[in-house]
Design goal:
CATH superfamily of the largest domain in chain A: Tetracycline Repressor, domain 2
Distance between the termini of chain A: 84 Å
Radius of gyration of chain A: 21 Å
Order of helices and strands of chain A: HHHHHHHHHH
Strand content of chain A: under 5%
Number of domains of chain A: 2
Oligomer: homodimer
Largest interface: A-B, 54 and 54 residues
Number of helices of chain A: 10
CATH architecture of the largest domain in chain A: Orthogonal Bundle
CATH class of the largest domain in chain A: Mainly Alpha
DNA sequence: GTCTATAATATGATAGAC
DNA sequence: GTCTATCATATTATAGAC
């Protein structure tokens, strides 16, 4: 009998599909309960899978969590990356803020996942914060500073401006329970968007156009 | 022998002291790990107390958590309560923002405790959000609207303005890990305060003074 | 690849001596 | 009031049949 090859990667499609299902379920569970609050049981149940089967795809609970963070970290930065030095400053910032508000509305669970991770000291993504994120923000802060120096934008600290944009836009995802409790209703995405743009950008119009 | 009285409350001072110690330790642990992430062991260790002894003062872990939230909920609202309809609008808002920034800096752990509770759906303080908090915000939004109607403040949605103030000021406590990673240093309270006041209030100066 | 059963551990909570 | 010892349970993770 000719040498039987070591088993090749069969059913890669099923594997990919199941990994997707697990990550999807895990996002729902982790974003509600945090890393420690979530149990593998809950994730398995939501993914319609037995616990051992789930642990066949991801050996440890932590592996699912890390995969989930990595899976979305890059998307998260895309709108900031898109800030174009050659564009009109107010239009660029407006586009950025709108994109962040839409991300908060479309995927509040991802926002809460990150919020939770950072709130707890960012043990898993510390390197990302101090590396790629710091690097990108430095670059874009320079762009904003350049706009201000050229009189196209009123002066303000670029770093704190970026923090303010993050804080306000993510607030609607992370603290939606509070927002809805205070307003007494489910927040309307569009009206919040309009109000936020107004509050954050009005003060940035240059003095002498 | 005359009838011995049922034991009176002896050592109430020690009890009060120990409860204080426990709450102090619990704040540190819960604010880092959240309700589920925190263990009674950790809290007891940090309070220099045995676990059973701690559970003599608070029968269940949840009791400590609730006591902690109630213990600080009221303080949390004080600066907003102090917003004075008779005062100068920009000065009042400036004072409010500054007070919130100082609270974030002085007690980031309390801020994170609330952030965590709300992030996870606010199971313990839902009534507080829909009751006293909603009530107070409605009242103060009315004050802001009144200022705007009288031309003392540029127009903006009062509710979303309050949300923006909360979001930005609490960001420095809740996401301090990220802020410090991006800035590459520990944030200076005073410069952040100045920048935040500038970003949030500049757009609110009335058009025709 | 998927399951049942179970090991190994962590943790909330209690009993009972002192 | 405080301690040591321990129970009961929940949960991560693995073994091994199918």
């Amino acid at each position: 009998m000719p040498h039987a090859k070591a088993k090749p990667a069969i059913n890669t499609r099923i594997q990919a599909r199941n990994k997707e299902l697990i990550l999807e379920a895990a996002l729902e569970v982790f974003s509600v309960s945090g890393f420690r609050g979530a149990t593998v049981d809950q994730i398995a149940a939501r993914a319609d899978m037995s616990k051992p089967n789930l642990l066949y795809y991801f050996r440890r609970k932590e592996d699912i969590y890390v995969a989930l963070l990595e899976h979305t970290l890059s998307d998260w930065l895309e709108p900031l990356r898109a800030l174009d030095p050659a564009g009109d400053p107010l239009a660029e910032l407006s586009r950025y803020i709108t994109a962040k508000m839409q991300m908060s509305e479309a995927n509040p669970m991802a926002s809460r996942l990150f919020a939770n991770e950072i709130l707890h000291g960012a043990p898993m993504i510390e390197k990302f914060l101090k590396g790629p994120l710091k690097q990108l923000v430095a670059e874009k802060a320079e762009v904003i500073r350049f706009w201000m120096a050229n009189g196209k934008l009123a002066h303000a600290d670029p770093y704190h401006l970026i923090f303010a944009i993050w804080a306000v836009t993510q607030h609607y995802a992370d603290f939606s329970v509070q927002v809805e409790a205070v307003l007494g209703r489910r927040e309307n995405g569009r009206s919040a968007q309009k109000a936020v743009l107004d509050i954050l950008l009005r003060g940035l119009r240059p003095r002498q156009p």
